[in-house]
Amino acid sequence: MKNKIFLLVWVMLSSCSPTGSLYNDFGSLKQRQQAESAGAPIRIYFDRNGFLYPDFRIDSTLFKRYGSLLNTVYQNNSVLFLNVCKAEGMLYQSSKTTRENIEILRQHQDQKYSNAIDKASAGKTLVFLIHGYNNTGEKAAKSFSSLRAAVSKLKPQSRFQFVEVYWDGLHNGGKIGNTAKIWDNAQYSAARAGLGLRRILNSISSKHSFVITHSQGAAVITEALFNVRRFSNRFYDKDSLGIAIIRMRNSPLYNSPSSRFTVGMLAPAIPGKNVFEHYYMRTVEGKNMYQPSEPYNFINGFNKYDFAVTKLLFSRYAGSTTLACREKEHIKVQELFKGDLSLYDRVVFSKSHGHRQTSHGVKDYIANENFPIFIEKILAQEQ
């Protein structure tokens, strides 16, 4: 049996594409979506390092050549970076280095988005939508559209301002073997995207915001709100990305939001206890510290039959998605919060209309008979 499993894994992985070709480029999607009529949701696009896409279209071939990293594109293409600054309405400061100007651009973009969110959400209920890994921008956009329509239909008296968060969780390129291969890269991207999102969330004016995530989108929002240690200590001690994350958590640019958030997680592809035991670790005034004052509320859209999070063959190897599907993990998180349902609760999606739900798709979670209960719990304290 073990030999058969090994052969299956080898066959699948031998057909994989190079990881570099599986990162997303949201540039063309952003350009098309910006042309939509007034009243469209606000959309935020992050590269795999948590950098915001600019209001300047960067050639996709150039973007891919530099590892799908905007920061690296800017550092190696000075004329292009000047055009980016011009398109963003930011004055390039010749007295400063390129790296310093890149950071000025990031702060400029952070403020631009927080201002846009504040202006659009005045008098409305602010709802962030975050997709999971293995999504192209187009696929994520369809899921977001379905979620917006479903939530609006369930709450017709509410006035919503939706914010769609696009982040580079890679895509499998249509090859099933790539699905497992991109998992680790997607986890790192989720951490970086979460910290990029945190820079915006800690500047918005909303006193109570709401979030709906799907799959590994839960990793993005938990990283955005508190200082998660989803990875092993070895990763944080030796890996350059991990070291950078620790440094970010000791910077006022990455202060945790001090306002309230209620988060609904559909099939959250994250560990439970390993994530939420750090729930009270926040960045406050530029320091990583224990901060119990401001609650963030979480509702787990739990499904023990979801094929993608139970993962069958890959459950031991592809990383922990246990909060979505394992009863023991759910109980561990309950115990962390001492059974306080105002901080952590769940809605069970395992069956709908008498049948097991094995699908991981957003549309099937929306069609599940328990979806209205899920939305009601999230928006119970809507103003």
Q: TL;DR of this structure?
A:
The chain is of the alpha/beta class.
Question: What distinguishing features does this structure have?
Answer:
Rossmann fold; 14% strand; two-stranded antiparallel ribbon; globular; 383 residues; alpha/beta; seven-stranded parallel β-sheet; 17 helices
Ranges with pLDDT <50 over ≥5 residues? 1-14, 312-318
Whole-angstrom Rg? 20 Å
The average pLDDT score comes to: 91
Binned, the helix content reads: 40-55%
Q: How many strands appear in the DSSP assignment? A: 11
CATH fold naming of the domain at 123-378:
Rossmann fold
Number of helical runs?
17
- Give me the CATH architecture of the domain at 123-378, please: 3-Layer(aba) Sandwich
Strand order in the largest sheet = 1-3-2-4-5-8-9
Quickly give the structural class.
alpha/beta
Percent strand: 5-15%
Distance between the termini: 56 Å
Largest sheet: 7 strands, parallel
List SSEs in N-to-C order. HHEHHHHEHEHHEHHHEHEEEHHEEEHH
CATH class of the domain at 123-378: Alpha Beta
The best one-word shape is globular
Q: What does it look like?
A:
This protein has 383 residues and is of the alpha/beta class. The chain has a domain at 123-378: Rossmann fold, CATH 3.40.50. It contains 17 helices and eleven strands. The protein has a seven-stranded parallel beta sheet with strand order 1-3-2-4-5-8-9, with helices on both faces. The chain has a two-stranded antiparallel sheet with strand order 6-7. A two-stranded antiparallel sheet has the order 10-11. α9 packs across α10. It is globular, with a radius of gyration of 20 Å. Residues 1-14 and 312-318 have low confidence and may be disordered.
